[in-house]
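User: New here, any thoughts?
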Amino acid sequence: MFDTETMAELCVKQGLTGEAIAIYRRLARATDDADKRRLYEARIGALRPATSEPSEPSDVTPMETPDLRVNRQGDDVDIEWRLPVDVGAPALQMLVLRNTPEGIAAEPRTLPVPSTAGRTRVAVPGLHSLRVAAGRLREGRFIPIVRPSLLEVRGTVGTVLPDARA
């Protein structure tokens, strides 16, 4: 994902206001121009009432059910999930794209988890991008319940796009 004003406004037009706010936050943090920073912060303020989002995301923000959060911390990926309490055999499924000397390598991973809500950290050296879904295992097959569209992790900051609920 490219963080530009155009991309943020495209997100707004598509109804992805939370993603637009996230782009404007990253733009505001990245600029050295105080006028631009004020412009981005004003746009965030104008968009926020429509979404009722807090000014900054935090670990104490309650999660909906179902929900999934994915954030990069260096070479680690933090995954937080919340599934309905009646889900049996909860699991996470990941498609990890890693940079290798031969190019991009795709690594599918399925991780059974002990409960319907929790948090885990996964080490992924050379991470290019990642797709994660939370759901259940049934007869050896993963059935997704919630998944964000894509986590781009090309820099030090990951981007989580809004949920595409299954």
Notes: Helices lie at 5-13, 17-30, 34-51.
